[in-house]
Amino acid sequence: MYKCHLKTIALLFIVFSCLQSYAKEPAEASGLKESIDSIAAIYLAKSPGKIIFVGINVQGVEQVFYYNASNDNGNSVADSGSLFEIGPLSGTFTSILFSKMTLQGDIGYDDAVQKYLPFNVTAPVYQKIVCKPLRDGGASIGLQDEPSVRFSPYVCLPDVNSVPQPILLCYLSTHTSGLPDFPFNMRSITGEMAIYENYSKENLYDFLKGFRLVEPISYTYNYSELGLALLGHVLELRSDMPFDMLLSDGIFKSLGMNSTLFVKKGYQNNLLLNGYTSSSKIAHRRYFDLFAPAGGLNSTIGDMMIFLSANLGNTNPEFKNVLDYTHNPRIHLSGEGGDDIEIAMGWKLSKINDNGDKVVWQGGTTEGFASFMGFEEIKKKGVVILSNSSESVEALAFDVLKLIEK
């Protein structure tokens, strides 16, 4: 049940702010709502999209705010069941599934990727290369007419004293595998979504056979959709089940998330929202094959509030140990300007205040949508934001987190 209040913000936007009703609201709810209204209006003023949901959970009390900056005859009206692309949060669910299978003993956290690939597909390994002059290269080679232009021939070979370093499954989840964001055999034409739709496991195998790692792995963080896609594919191979069924049986049913799914081509549902690009054009809908585990999920504000509550430990205690396992930081990054970020499995951790309190979060954009989830486990406070615009909501989300963190 939503109570809706009509407000006019600036001259260009009509914003409907809908607050979910509960039997008991915090005393400062009115002031908090006004503050969120204010910062949401700033986002809408620069956003080419039409809709934004801001959901907060403060010690078990949930509130959902709905803003509609649409002026297109109601074609962008949404409700709690409307579907948004959630982009990088898809990879978070892939890491959670991997963690669950790890804790159950179904797969090894530090198993090599090669262990699960077909026998005729070789996964890349890193091995130190040593370059030495040719044994008979004492006489430098040059041009007869240019005796001053001379060089000594070298040969570079794998170091026989070093052990090849394989890519481990945990490296895929923490983005330290050394794999690029996208494979080199994926066509990268701007705006052409068919590159996701048409990239298959055969394309992946061709890439793996030809790719060479030139630096030691497990040390350098480099976000890789390819790595998450490969992780999802390995989980499929290990379970002998399609990835969407793995997610449904392994996570969504356990949490009661009944509206989070991969949208297949030809899927017709009036709950599917249009997304908007940075130039205010309707974005092409994305369909996925192999890359679905990295960015293919669609979800609703209702399901994402369920997911937030589970991560805070308010519900589904039997699943909490799996979620906690993914929250633990594995890598520490020192960013420019002193912004320290830690990398967990599917999540990032950042400081929210000078006291050192940390927020576990993940978010990002697609061609037409933006999403974010962040929470403080100890204080049991968190936020979810869904938007049908390609404008990032990360800054907005941290502003809201700071409001509720006080």
Question: Would you write up a description of this structure?
Answer:
With about 400 residues, the chain is an alpha+beta fold. It has eleven helices and 19 strands. The chain is about 30% helix and about 25% strand. The chain is globular and about 80 Å long. It folds into two domains: about 1-105 and about 240-405, Beta-lactamase, CATH 3.40.710.10; about 130-160, no CATH class. β8 and β9 (about 145-150) form a beta hairpin.
Please give a handful of descriptors for the protein shown:
Beta-lactamase, three-stranded antiparallel beta sheet, globular, 406 residues, disordered N terminus
The second-level CATH architecture of the largest domain is 3-Layer(aba) Sandwich
- Uncertain stretches of 5 or more adjacent residues: 1-27
Helix content range: 25-40%
Tally of helical runs: 11
Q: Report the mean per-residue pLDDT as an integer.
A: 85
CATH topology of the largest domain: Beta-lactamase
Strand content: 15-25%
What is the domain total for the residues? Answer: 2
CATH H level, superfamily name of the largest domain: DD-peptidase/beta-lactamase superfamily
Give the overall shape: globular
Could you give a short account of the major beta sheet?
Answer: 8 strands, antiparallel
Supply the CATH class of the largest domain.
Alpha Beta
Number of β-strand runs: 19
Question: Reading side by side through the largest sheet, how are the strands ordered?
Answer: 4-3-19-18-17-16-15-14
Write down the Rg. Answer: 25 Å
Derived from helix and strand composition plus strand pairing, the structural class reads alpha+beta
User: Could you give the order of the helices and strands?
Assistant: EEHEEEHEEEEEEHHHHHEHEHHEEEEEEH
Terminal Cα separation, in Å? 28 Å
